[in-house]
Amino acid sequence: MKEKYFINARIIDPSQNLDEVGGIIVDPQGKIKAIGKNIKKGNIPAKAEKIDLKGKVLIPGIVDMKVFVGEPGFEYKENFRTLSNAALSGGVTSVVSMPNTSPVIDNVSMVDFILRRGRDKAGINIYPSATLTRNMDGKLMTEFGLLSKKGIVGFTDATKTVQNAEMMSRIMNYASDLDVLVMQHPEDHELSKNRCISEGEVSTRLGLRGIPYIAEKIIIERDLSLLEEYPCRYHISQLSSAKSVEVIKKYKKNGLKFSAGVSINNLSLNENDIGDFKTFMKISPPLRKEEDRKALIQGIKDGSIDVIVSDHKPEDEESKRLPFAQAAEGSIGIETLLSLALELYHNGSLPLKKIVETITYNPAKILKINKGTLKKGSDADLCIFDLDQPWQVDVSKLKSKSKNAAIENRKLQGKVLMTYLKGESVFSLQ
Amino acid sequence: MAVIKKFSAVKKIQKHLLGIQNLSIDEAKLILDEAKNFIKLNRSVSKKLDLLRGKTQINLFFEPSTRTQSSFELAGKRLGADVMTMNVGNSSLKKGETILDTAMSLNAMHPDIIVVRHQDSGAPNLLSQKVNCAVINAGDGLREHPTQALLDALTIINRKGRIEGLKIAICGDILHSRVARSNMYLLNMLGAEVNVIAPKTLMPNSVNKLGVKRFTNMKEGLKSCDIVMMLRLQNERMAGSFLPSKREYYEYFGLTPDKLKFAKKDALIMHPGPMNRGVEIDTKLADDINVSLVKEQVELGVAVRMACLKLYCK
């Protein structure tokens, strides 16, 4: 590989507090050799490859902390190859894969399988997570130590929650010693059983049993209380309500160390989008009120929430073309994560740098992986996008194997043009 | 002098009857007016018309029903339609067939109208997107039961002469009741003042946003009401999960002659059936023809369904 010079780019790299026009040099090994405004047209050696970005934005390759792949067991919904294509067209170069596959990722041999499949079939960096408890039934913890040694970056029961407080306290206590990351999907099972959307006027009108915000808050409060006693690396996968943001803010203010994430869907949609039983809008945690959406945005602004995820969950048509209560939860979103997040920039909700931080540097920091940065010496995983290009989401053109996009037909502004993985071009918009 | 012809706008109706929420006030009035014509017919000796001759009506019931199903069946037959009733119970669900599979195979038989009841809210909406004919919702989950609300409204109009300005209480398990929801929308739309009365555990979230007043005791909720509408309380909900016991519920929310005194002197009682005598309503009160409209509700139910079939079957 020749040395590459990317010039005339608006480089945004929150890990170095950078937002300036300049260039980067990628060495033949795919590492970043230099970065800054001094890299420009005049000083490029003749044999190097020159890529003039003409003012487009260059950020570190996106790190998506919550992605469902489908392998093993649900290959008909998504496999590593289709996921990679979707990810790369969205500028995503690293993902944390969820362990609720079939069978679930709760033992060492399953991790071998995932890593091997990821290596052979995926065109992106796969960081597998394993379950917190065996078979995700919340009763017995998995082998945090052995699994970590195999390359597991974090532990989560994906869409399930450890309900038993005693079990959770032991998990935290044990995890702290090994310095592993515990990621909780906060939802009380009793308060959410047989329910599907947010509880309120909309659920009453649609005749659906709603999930109260308290189902989420009660687990967050419990876990944060436990965390005070048993400090460990703790991350709240996703939030949905204003009340949860309040709780998090309070604990963070008191100095407790933990992190929290939110799905781009909960930042961009609200319960009214469900309309006449649109099952693509059935997600977990559910879409809530407009006030909740605004509070989540505010939570990102003030640092209460650290990460934005796509919560990419592919579901085939058969799982969605059902009465609402029976339909599967989830929406695809890895390909549209950045574009949809840019909507929050264009409508004045969030500064661009903040958005970039929540999808690159922050998740990498929480996961303790050397990604999400353009610092000298790091892998040249790059996402280059046009901040203003308008386009409309056409599900038939999305690369994911499943087409259940909550933002079907939405008009967006901002599109990924090129993606590089370790200095190699892996996606280029036609 | 030129003669000015009086003409009214062509009365239009939507393709499907999925719920009162989707209905305009004109559509509701059109159905009720149409139904009035059938009341007399149903009381006469010869009850058969040929308005729907050659049309096919399929009643698709995923949930058991006696009253609604027989009412729709009779209504269709009296209008001359070919009526087929399918009880799609657990059997075909066990076979793995989805509601859309069932719908598609029925659609291939070219029905003109499908009447559907399903345990999931929104199932008729889903169905209506996939079939070519009209769909009438005969009750879906906790969401709507539009023809029940329409027959309740017709019963009230028949007795009281109007709905506008009346005060109506709906009492019982509001949370799990599609009848309550449809009635709230319709009675509100037609100008009644609606109170809902229930223990807090059986009251839906944000129900006040549907334009009704909430009460948790009968004395206040029934005050100066013209109509008291009681709802059925299902057995599985009385045994401790929502309420401590049957007898405690009866004590506070069962309609007894004493509690009825809180309402207006000439107040009338309604119940969508089937009744739990001695749970939500005193058995003598339920049978008292001077105050109970229960039988009339069933009778006018056929008229309302005839009107719906006539208007939606195109």
Q: Would you kindly provide a brief summary of this structure?
A:
The complex is a heterodimer of chains A (430) and B (314). By secondary structure, chain A is α/β, with parallel strands linked by helices. In chain A, α4 packs across α7, α7 runs parallel beside α8 and α8 runs parallel beside α10.
Q: What is the mean predicted local confidence, pLDDT of chain A? A: 97
Largest sheet of chain B: 5 strands, parallel
Radius of gyration of chain A: 21 Å
> Distance between the terminal alpha carbons of chain B, to the nearest Å?
40 Å
Please tally the helical runs of chain A, counting DSSP H or I stretches of 4 or more residues: 14
Q: Sketch the major β-sheet of chain A.
A: 8 strands, mixed
Total strand count of chain A, please? 18
Give the helix proportion of chain B (percent range): 25-40%
Rg for CA atoms of chain B? 20 Å
User: What is the average per-residue confidence, as pLDDT of chain B, rounded to a whole number?
Assistant: 92
Write down the overall geometry of chain B.
Answer: globular
Backbone structural class of chain B = alpha/beta
Helix content of chain A: 25-40%
Question: Structural class, from secondary structure content of chain A?
Answer: alpha/beta
H-E string of chain B: HEHEHHEHEHEHEEHEHHEHH
End-to-end distance of chain A? 23 Å
Low-confidence stretches of chain A: none
Oligomer, anyone?
A: heterodimer
- Unreliable spans of chain B: none
